[in-house]
Automatic annotation (TrEMBL):
Keywords, alphabetical: Membrane, Transferase, Transmembrane, Transmembrane helix
Record GO terms (molecular function): transferase activity
InterPro entries: Bact_transf (IPR003362), EPS_sugar_tfrase (IPR017475)
The keyword Kinase is assigned to this record: no
UniProt entry tagged with the keyword Transmembrane: yes
Source organism of this protein record: Nocardioides vastitatis
Record-annotated membrane-spanning stretches: 21-41, 61-82, 94-116, 122-142, 296-319
Superkingdom of origin organism: Bacteria
Name of the protein in question: Sugar transferase
């Protein structure tokens, strides 16, 4: 198999050249949103009694509204709201839309005042109350649609990764894992001292890093990722950038950082040197009083709201085999503290005695031990687990302070004993009833993926992330994806 054939096999199907139409598609979404805004603002101004014609509404409202929409779109464009690299990830796209809306409101208001133009105040207030919301909703919907298409292999950007073989694999693993980004890795270029046909993860090596520009152009790359080991000096990196001018190839520099949230990063160029500042991990904030109040109030309200389900679950467990309703399993919590984790009993009474035999039988390791068809699960236990009802007694653990509503899942001492390196960071915060890995695939994830997500949560904690995870938990539970 030739290098070119291996490249096509790795990259999959030909990338979609409709990428160039992304800005136009988003522009169409914005136009529709603002047209609806103008319609609603006009109807509101005419029909709501709080807006009186005595305010001096001008009869040429339709013409002015059209001009305002065109100006609004133009200011979004000037603010960079239609740059292709904005679409799909990050909050910068939304920030630019909001800022452009504020500027538009200011320009229109000041302009009408200076020109002594009698513009409808009712239309103005409604338009700039409704418009930004519809614009953000349209952008959010477009982003979700884009992610869905990219996961299905559409709207892909061809990526060439340049750097040492190890860094190439690190970057490629992230790009392959996060399919919604839409990056299709066609190959790599590595230093001449690393003569390889492919990297350890199977990325074909297309040549020497000295020829990265020629290789990128020859293989039709849309983006070149420059990872560690590409350039020996800033001057050499500038030579690569200059050589790519006018060839329609974007450049991305991938620093030796992983699992750091956008909120902790800031770019501060100093004397022409772009410096990436990384804030401290935020796990300390996860132990403060604000999160604790949120946990206490939230768990108490959830117990009241879910009390009928708790009663039904307890009744079915008792009627099945007259055994204990609750199962108290000792887990390791914050700072290595041992506590009794409560669950509705979903297994036979002697389930613990069967664990070692099942591990030997299935060949599974002790870390995050789970069986898809566990013979120990009782009949009511199946539906309790499917909809995560068995976890609800842990609301009492949250009230007591052993756990949090959101955090890494608590594990037994045997699992904690297997921790290596970064895994121990899970113990810096209270364990949670739900967490990032539960809403990202639950038991369908490998132990390594689950650990990676938990460590990311600890290092990048925020209250908004907790709220987002709780909202996503409802979808994960009702879909039952990855639950067993």
């Amino acid at each position: 198999m030739t290098v070119l054939e291996r490249t096509r096999l790795i990259a999959g199907s030909e990338p979609s050249r409709t990428l160039r139409y992304l800005p136009g598609s988003v522009l169409a979404v914005d136009v529709v949103a603002l047209a609806v805004t103008a319609l609603l603002a006009t109807l509101g101004r005419e029909r709501l009694t709080i807006f009186s014609r005595a305010w001096g509404a001008h009869e040429e409202l339709g013409v002015v509204a059209t001009i305002a929409i065109v100006a609004w779109i133009g200011i979004i464009a000037v603010a960079g709201g239609y740059r292709r690299d904005l679409f799909g990830s990050g909050s910068d796209e939304f920030k630019r839309v909001v800022n452009a809306s504020l500027v538009t409101a200011g320009v229109l208001g000041v302009g009408c005042y200076l020109a002594k133009y009698d513009f409808s105040r009712g239309f103005f207030l409604l338009a700039f109350a409704i418009g930004p919301l519809l614009l953000l909703l349209g952008r959010f919907s477009a982003r979700k649609a884009l992610h869905a298409l990219r996961r299905r292999g559409f709207l892909q950007a061809r990526v060439l990764v340049a750097g040492s073989a190890r860094r190439v694999d690190e970057v490629t693993q992230v790009l392959r894992r996060e399919k919604w980004l839409g990056y299709s890795v066609l190959g790599a270029v590595t230093p001449a001292v690393e003569p390889l046909e492919e990297t350890a993860t199977g990325v074909p090596v297309l040549g020497d890093k000295e020829n990265v520009v020629e290789i990128g152009r020859a293989h039709g790359a849309d983006i070149i990722f420059f990872a560690g080991g590409t350039s020996t000096s800033a001057a050499e990196m500038n030579q690569h950038l200059w050589a790519l001018e006018g060839h329609g190839i974007d450049v991305v520099v991938a620093p030796s950082l992983q699992e750091v949230s956008q909120q902790r990063l800031s770019l501060r160029p100093i004397g022409g040197l772009p410096l990436i500042h990384v804030d401290q991990p935020t796990w300390v904030s996860a132990g403060r009083i604000g999160k604790r109040i949120f946990d206490v109030v939230g768990s108490f309200l959830l117990i009241l709201a879910l009390s009928p389900i708790l009663l039904v679950a307890a009744t079915q467990i008792f009627l099945h085999d007259r055994g204990p309703l609750l199962f108290k399993h000792y887990r390791i919590g914050r700072n290595g503290k041992r506590f009794g984790c409560l669950k509705f009993r979903t297994m036979v009474v002697n389930a613990e005695a069967m664990v070692k035999d099942l591990q030997v039988e299935t060949g599974q390791q002790a870390l995050l031990f789970k069986l898809k068809n566990d013979p120990r699960v009782t009949k009511p236990g199946h539906w309790l687990r499917r909809f995560s009802v068995d976890e609800l007694p842990q609301l009492l653990n949250v009230l007591r302070g052993d756990m949090s509503l959101v955090g890494p899942r608590p594990q037994v001492q045997g699992e904690v004993d297997l921790y290596q390196g970064a895994m121990e960071r899970r113990l810096l915060v209270r364990p949670g009833m739900t967490g990032l890995w539960q809403v990202s695939g639950r038991n369908d994830l490998t132990p390594e993926e689950a650990m990676r997500l938990d460590v990311y949560y600890v290092d990048n904690w925020s209250m908004m992330q907790d709220i987002s995870i709780l909202l996503r938990t409802f979808t994960a539970v009702t879909s039952s994806r990855g639950a067993y």
